Amino acid sequence: MKKNLKMVIILTFLLLLYSSICAISYAQNISTDIANSVFRLHVIANSDTQEDQNLKYKVRDNLLDYMNKICENTNTKQEAISIVEKNKDTFEQIASNTIKEQGYDYPVKINIGNFEFPTKNYGDISLPAGYYDALRVEIGEAKGQNWWCVMFPPLCFVDISSGVVPEESKELMENNLSEEEFALVSNQSDNEIQFKFKLLEFFANNGLITAKK
Fold it and tell me: How many whole angstroms separate alpha carbon 113 and alpha carbon 57?
């Protein structure tokens, strides 16, 4: 009897271990694929004063206006990154000019890299926490609240309270993701999808998976 119990415990442990490995592998692959399909924007204000936060939004709006113009016909993340890299100095100049026009003399620092993002909702699209390629804009001391968005596909709509992502943006995202991956970021009403999304969040938030480069 003791021998049988010991065997059951061992088999149960091995089953749990196997299930955990499979779950982590699944989450890692999905997280990486999603991260490889989007290019994000991260703007950090000088401070949390209302004036600095308003300035952050001014900078954001002008950068997005420019981004939308130069990436109007972009169909992939790599195309978007390549265009931004070629025009990095212009992005920095736009940010600096905006700051000066608003009466401030803060320096601005712009980097294109791989940064950690929390789980964020963009209307009816949700992106799990993880590491994403992004254009990071640091204003002044960069000690204020962050503003997070997605430059490609373009999800940086201003009226986020409407909860509706433009269909063109959804189509671009759908074209760059598998059917299941797109369901994970766009369909939160299905119980199975909700569970898988929570699984991604859990592993990412506890450092068990990462798309960091």
Answer: 21
CA distances from 179 to 86, 173, 176, 208 (A): 32, 10, 10, 24
Structural domain of 55: 32-205
What length is written for the chain?
213
φ, ψ at 206 (rounded to 5°): -105, 15
| pTM for this entry | 0.76
Least confident of 50-59, 63-72, 202-211: 202-211
Whole-number Å distance between alpha carbons of 156 and 37:
16
> Cα(178)–Cα(90) distance, rounded to whole angstroms?
34
Residues 6-22: pLDDT tens digits? 666 766 766 666 566 66
Write the CA distances from 186 to 89, 122, 181, integer angstroms.
Answer: 34, 10, 9
> How is residue 61 written in tokens?
């709006």
Nearest C-alpha neighbor of 146 from the set 175, 172, 117: 117
Q: Tokens at residue 172, please?
A: 């671009």
DSSP structure class, residue 107 = -
Q: What's the number of domains the chain is made of?
A: 1
The pair of structure tokens assigned to 91 is 């992005």
103: left (phi over 0), alpha (psi -120 to 50) or beta: left
Residue 13 domain-assigned (yes or no): no
- Residue 2 within any structural domain of the chain: no
